[in-house]
Amino acid sequence: MDHIQELIEIEITELSEWQDRFRKNSFFELVFILQGKGIQSIEYRTQAYGKNDFFLLPYSKCHAYEISEPTTFLFVRFTEHYFKNLKNTSIDYLQWYSKLNYIIGFYDFNAGLYFSDEKDKNLVKKLFEIILIEKEQRSAYSETIIANTVASILTIISSKLIAPHEVCKKSDDKIEDIIQHINQNIIDENKLSVAYLSEKFNISKKYFSEYFKRNTEEPLKEYIQKTKLQIAVNRIKYTKSSFQEIAWSLGFTDSSHLNKSLKKYFGVTSSAVRKEKVSVMQISKEV
């Protein structure tokens, strides 16, 4: 597992008092509460935590824990290049990179993720337990097992997210599947083409663009562009990635192209978003 140590970190820490930690520029941090209870604070918003709760944090988020009962934390941190550098796995990097971007674009980092279904919460607990076991065993298959387990956790998280796009009340059920496909494959241009979408969802290629606009009230190209920009806004806000890196990763020519697109669709610049930490919801309300 040595060649991926810089791409993923798995740490277990028991604390009775919170201590600020030095964190590398990770794309994500998953936090699972093995034992204990207290209050989590994320940029001055608080929520109680207890055993078996878990949270998702982007790199640069200001957070802390007010520990009322000694707490054992399990931290799983990984970079955006983690899945790309894995060996001996069948994980599709483009698919998972799209999913990572989808999560960071639409996950509410202030409210967190609420599980109303205890089955889902118990499943996530079992997945974290698998990570713990493989961390200790470090067998020849541990790298593959951990990667697939992290991927499963992200799949559960992404399945709970609702993108801030509404479809027409008269639209059929198929459009929701199309939107979900687009959101979770947003980096893979081949899977966003009219040719691919029309064949996958059994809609005439000539009719598809009209069908999509009728059901979403905006052209396909514009929908994809706005979705990428919403992801860009959260990556600018919540990570320390450069504007150029964010632009390239989302398919923009360069940082100037990204900046012009943000200005065109949302009326803000990359610098303003990072400086003022303007939210996607604020932008959406102002447009």
Instruction: Determine the N-to-C terminus distance.
Output: 47 Å
The domain count comes to 2
CATH architecture of the largest domain: Sandwich
Overall number of strands: 5
Organism: Chryseobacterium shigense
Domain HTH araC/xylS-type: 176-276
Keywords: DNA-binding, Transcription, Transcription regulation
Pfam families: AraC_binding, HTH_18
Topology at a glance:
Blueprint: E1 8-15, E2 28-42, E3 45-49, E4 54-57, E5 63-78, H1 93-106, H2 118-137, H3 142-159, H4 173-184, H5 194-200, H6 205-216, H7 220-238, H8 243-249, H9 255-266, H10 270-276, H11 280-286
Antiparallel strand pairs: 1-5, 2-3, 2-4, 2-5
GO molecular function, one term: sequence-specific DNA binding
Protein name: Transcriptional regulator, AraC family
InterPro entries: AraC-bd (IPR003313), Homeodomain-like_sf (IPR009057), HTH-like (IPR037923), HTH_AraC (IPR018060)
Characteristics:
287 residues; alpha+beta; Jelly Rolls; Arc Repressor Mutant, subunit A; 2 domains; five-stranded antiparallel β-sheet; 5 strands; globular; disordered C terminus; DNA-binding; transcription regulation; Transcriptional regulator, AraC family; DNA-binding transcription factor activity
